[in-house]
Amino acid sequence: MPGAKGKSGGKRTGAGRMAFKATEEQKDLVMQLAAFGLRHADIALFVKSANGQSISEPTLLKNFKNELTTGKLKANVKVAQTLYKKAIGGDTTSIIFWLKSQAGWKDTQRVEVTGNSGGPIQSVYMTNDEFHRVAKTIVDEF
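The chain above was modelled as a monomer; its predicted structure follows.
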């Protein structure tokens, strides 16, 4: 039948790109790489299609959504457990970080600016012409 499309979307049977089908080995790899914190674009470079080419990021997201999410979550859980153990064990840095990130603690600094001898700040207003005259005088002194 002229012009009829095959299953792959081409004009002739078998034409077009084969649909990507993730293997269990690829799923494990993606989950591990996501746990390591790699960017999705970089993970896609590690996953190969049936013809040996790297897959695209949209293909990665379509076929490995669960592995990407689960891998990152598992890593975050392990890191959080380690941080928690160190904090309750007395590690000062871990305690401070935990309280800042989980208990709303924050470092605050207050800076006060005052004028001469603690008095109010004095403002000087000048026109552009006055400013240019002062600037020229300063430049000429050098």
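The chain has a mean pLDDT of 90.
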